[in-house]
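Design review, sub-item: ligand-bound model
Attendees: FS, YL, KQ
YL presented the inputs for the nicotinamide-adenine-dinucleotide complex:
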Amino acid sequence: MATLPAAEDLKVRADQAARACGVDLTAYRGEKEGRSPINGAVVSTLAWSEPDAVGETVRRARAAFATWRSVPAPVRGALVKRFGELLTEHKADLATLVSIEAGKVTSEALGEVQEMIDICDFAVGLSRQLYGRTMASERPGHRLMETWHPLGVVGVVSAFNFPVAVWSWNTAIALVCGDPVVWKPSEKTPLCALAADALLQRAIAEQGLSADLSQVVLGGPEVGEALVADRGVALLSATGSTRMGRAVGPVVADRFGRSLLELGGNNAAVIAPSADLALATRGIVFSAAGTAGQRCTTMRRVIAHSSIVDEVTERVAAAYRNLPVGDPMSEGTLVGPLLDERSYEAFVAAIEAAKAAGGEVVAGGERELADEAEGAYYVRPVVIRMPEQSEVMHTETFAPILYVLPYESFAEAIELNNAVPQGLSSSVFTQDQAEAELFCSAEGSDCGIVNVNIGTSGAEIGGAFGGEKETGGGRESGSDAWRAYMRRATNTINYSGELPLAQGVTFDI
Ligand code: NAD
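KQ shared the predicted structure:
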């Protein structure tokens, strides 16, 4: 009995969900086929933008900026508030598209849209809290303060695995900060992008604002390259592989633009002897196998104390053997498909490389459901026991591969955690407060996200999100990440009637 949906069935559902969000599919009809990882079937045929046309899109966004920057921030917040309401209304429609194009299980797809709603709430509050400081001036009769102003056009390049949330992190904050957005979504998830933008366009139209506050340019890397190089883009926020960031960063720097890079991760959990192993196992399995290993925060390495490493490995392996792998939209499925054939090939190659480096596959690694749909790639997440630290663990393979390593001292565990080129997320499972504190201290994990007794994935929007080293150094979402979307002016206001100079300098004329 077939367990994957029929090709036509998914196409119909995708069309319905996109239309429900307000997408006029006929306006975008074209030649480029988009396939669903669920069954490999074509679910969209759309027209892509020409790289040459990106300049005109940015010009329109700049024209919208000229007006939007003068709208009071709390009024700008009202637009984001309405957008959040529409997202709430269409949560299921958008989640359906996330499942169909990115292959996420329903609960995670709904969670992704919830994250959009959450960032809208956050941004609405922020629209009344774009605070600057007042500093004590060293001169009498002077006031010294800083003010924050809209920056300009924000270009967003996003990855397939968070096809709508990452854009909303940028867009909700950019809009309250006074910046229009031009979005180049992943070429793998165009319907998600059109649907999310259509909901925002509805809010924009209801409030009589310029449609150019939010624009989408569909296409592959060459369209992204045009956006990255455009001098009219003040902030370029790019989410994707380190390979992409390495290409994008220098181009933006060369034109003295501002960039915000959210790149690859290679995240580890340290499991100490005192850890609650039932809790740790749940945390590991969600972070390592969830989203079929296709999150930037996916746990890729477990570093377990030698006294418990066998038990940890066996507990995780037992859970892996029973994980329901299959159609992400059917109830009970926890692991959906890999994105495409390339992802599957990378999965197979990484397992072979680990074996060649002395690794032992303890559970998983098999392809599943291959007889149901040739163009769909389902795998059982794999646990590989490694004898020691190895180069094969330094690369992010965007698939559910978990390497397990033993450690002897806690200092060694921290060293192993930090031994990779990426620096996104990390966690420690321990009941020992000193270990927990050390892991979170300056001598601990070198990552942007450092957790205790939870896994590496599943961050909330309230904190700043991002990582160090090859992860790119950017911070998005909550906390004070908004500052990247504004320019700071330092104002000195003299009401003294005199002209005293700073540092006691005299210059009498
Ligand atoms: P990818 O790098 O292949 O593509 C990402 C986006 O960049 C796409 O829109 C693509 O068209 C565009 N692009 C590629 N080359 C470009 C170039 N030279 N100039 C301009 N644009 C270019 O990544 P992917 O396969 O879609 O996503 C998976 C990767 O994204 C993983 O490495 C994952 O860790 C990373 N990611 C990071 C975060 C984070 O917040 N750190 C979040 C999600 C995904």
